[in-house]
Amino acid sequence: MTTQQTFSILKPDATRRNLTGAINQKFEENGLRIVAQKRIHMTREQAEGFYAVHKERPFFGELVDFMISEPVVVQVLEGENAVLKNREIMGATNPEEADAGTIRKEFALSIGENSVHGSDSDENAEIEIAYFFKPEELVG
Ligand code: GDP
Fold first, then answer.
1. The pTM is what?
2. Is there a contact between 33 and 77 (Cβ–Cβ < 8 Å)?
């Protein structure tokens, strides 16, 4: 077990419904510490760059439009096996397939408006954290 950091986004469907506290509580009660956090309204360029890996997918346009529709909260979460642990706390991409007690099961509206993003590997966590945060903004 090693302490890791992962990148997280509270998506527009969550900020719109005032769910940032309820979702942060899930992270904290499962042992993840929020070591950086800011509320931003992503530009189209930022969202397209962040999701560039998905640009050939049929839902890319819809995903970018959604991510810039309202503010989001970008975060760095820290804890033991943070990447994997956060994926467990989030639940499956499609809320209909998510396990009971997960964020997406409890809060997500649909496969697109699914409340949270979380890095899927250590390598991507590092890239995604650097996309939104300067090193000095992380306070452990
Ligand atoms: P994640 O790692 O669980 O977030 O899932 P993916 O990396 O596969 O997809 C990234 C994001 O694209 C998801 O969290 C959804 O917001 C969105 N997405 C994935 N599949 C679909 C889809 O079929 N339709 C729409 N509208 N959005 C999707």
1. 0.98
2. yes
